[in-house]
Known about the structure:
876 residues; alpha+beta; 13-stranded mixed beta sheet; six-stranded mixed β-barrel
Amino acid sequence: MADEVKNNIRPPKWALKFLRWFCREDLSDAVEGDLIELFDRRVEAYGPTKARILFVFNVMMFFRPFAIKRRSNKKGLSAFEMQMLNFRYAARNLANSRLYSLINVISLSIGLAACGLLVSFIFEELSYDKFHKHGERTFRFGYQLENENQPTRRLAWVSALVGPAVAETYPEVESMVRIRNCQGTMISAKNEVFLEDGGFFAGEEFFDIFSFESLHGDLSTALDEPYEAVLTQEMAIKYFGDENPIGRTLQLRMRDTLNLKITAVIANVPNESHFTFDYLISHKTREQLYPHIQGWFALGTHTYFRLREHVDPIAFEQKVENIVMDNYGEEAEKIGFNIKVFTQPLWDIHLKSDLGSEISSNGNIQYVRIAGGISGIIFLISVFNFINLCFARSAKFVKQVGVRQVLGASRIQLIHQFMTETVWLVCLSFMLSSLLVYPLLPYFEILVSRSLTTQWTGWFSMTTIGVLVLIVGLTAGLLPAVRILSLKTISNLKGKFNMGCSKKLANQSMIVMQFAMATLLICGVLIIDGQLNFMLKSALGFDREQVAVIDLWNNRQARENTSILKEELLKSPNIRLVTASNSIPGEQLLNRVGYPNGDESQSKVMFSLLTQDDFLRLYGLEIVAGRDISSDMITDQTNAFMINETGAREFGWTNDEAVGQDFQWGSRGGKIIGVVKDFHYYSLHEQVPPMIILPTERGVGFMSIKINGDVREAVEFVSDTWAKLYPDQVFTLNFLDERFNEQYQLENQLSKIMTLFSAIAILIACSGLFSLSAFHVEQRVKEIGIRKLLGASVSDVLYLVSAFFLRLVGVSIVLALPVTYFLTRRWLDDFAFRIELSPLFFIVATFISLSIAVLTVSIQSLRAARLNPVDNLRYE
């Protein structure tokens, strides 16, 4: 019985089949017998399970090159052997043309790495707000203000009454939430005071609309009651350490001192959110603090809502657009306004919203498209460069192909050889580019001021890039292979390589396209830098140099009595002037309706600047008619106004006619006593708005300080004075020029991106031109030798070699300049104030492109001109 059981124990069948499949016939029987005999002995010694495992191990260990079957010569090489042979040929050919191979790999690697970084930026920008669960059904309300006397304005915020009215009236709304910025808020904890800017009042349905991860507490009820707050993880750790803050309190200093109960903690807000925050306070808290700010024209609230499934958002927008006029129409029409409500998809806010009063600064879809265009240009330049270099390199192996043809190599085998070489080069380039992306990513993040993730390494991106890489490799191998194999074998044996008219035209077209795209980038960089410098250095109509600004919004004591701080600061010899205002250039201005002579039909929205003494002097504003507001004249403090030139034109007055006009600003009446020369309160993206300037004793939020001396000493004096007067208040000081220039952050980033990646594109194009000029010289080396023997000078040879490429570069410039003009003209149209597209930009771009091309080609041309003609003409 034991012998019968033993006879039924056999080694794994699949292992035996595998052994018989790969093992040479002269070894197969002996090896199989030995292994089975060894298996039987192991069964007795160790048991069947271990014996089978060891049997499989022995079979695998025997899978070695000497034991693998080989096909007979009559059947030819196996596919595996053929591929290995192609690898050997590829390695040898690459080693024999190190220069071409090295330039090819490096240029393609740099190009793919640059594309990878740009794609990471593009994916990051396009991913904003995609993490919200019902983002495709979430929208934001906005106001469209129409006045026949002024251009239509579209705002991102609305009245706090709009959201509840729409939610109660229209069943299509599934959920609605109101949000309002807390501005700078002072928070006290552990006997320390911190200034926090990242806070919002938010309605109870905030976490139903937006999908943020909960760490502690119940988000569904976290903002239901007054004086409740939700913190992010970072802020909770800052104030409470590792303790659970639920049920604890934080003290906020706003209009009054508030004790807020912490009801929940959420994970930090993702970077891909169009607004970020550190804490939220229940909206009911705001309603108790500011019960009077509830009118239909009392703006400042951002309102989001979610529609029910299968609701048409366009049809819904048409339903709600007149809800303000239905409730506020009589008052609005009285002052000449028609207010419409519009809706905006959540996913469009970050890149496609250019509304006034945004909740935070947004990106720009145009700049994402520009980044995509640059990425595409670099990719095409890299690909064209790679294909051209593969053509040039393949010409060196024409004789080798001829010999293999004589020895019986088939057409398919030779095509496989070329493709193997190019695919290996492309794969090597792709691996090197992947290695480059990761260490370069932190520096690129600094450049674009974004925290990026390498999303381009995701499965979709990797698959896409892999397919593109494979196509490039196969194409770069197939094209020269087909051309060489179309030639006669005897021509190949002689080493003669005629590219053919169609292939020459294709290769020359790729060179033209490379330099056309490089020229486009050069010209684009010059124009963008020109516009950026124009914005940064233009005369704005006010003096912003050495002006320091203190934020007073969180210091109620300083706001209500600015004279104390002002008097102390003026004691410093380094401080010339001090003033206070409700806003400063670049910051949001109060909008209020104004009209002349009691005629409400001429009402216009005026950008309102509330100031104190010396504001016009400190900022160097020029008075073109009338006089300045004076603190010595009591009536000026209650019924005096100043307007700017745009404001005068809006009402149909000349500057002189405006002075003395009766004017109504909200509920305050008075006379216009002066006209200020127009100045750019906002960036040069925008037209100068109609402005009104009026005096105030309270309601200021900023103190401006004109420094006239040692800046460091002045700043130290201001800081010490603040600490002496307000020891328990946070001190915040900025310089106006730096703060104002932050409005040009996107343009500054675009300029840096364009400059960097244009340099990369030019480098790649030049590397290709360098290699192609070397190939051109090698093809004409005997001709050059004969010309030199016949008396040609170095300059003649330089012209002979360079003229061909310079003609191609000239054609590329002619093609690039009109396209560049069209694209940059469209980009400049987004600016209210812009540079003119002077021919000088295009002349400089042409000069740079030609200079780069001449310098690149001249290196090889000089080398060819200095060669000994005897060496050139020697055969073998």
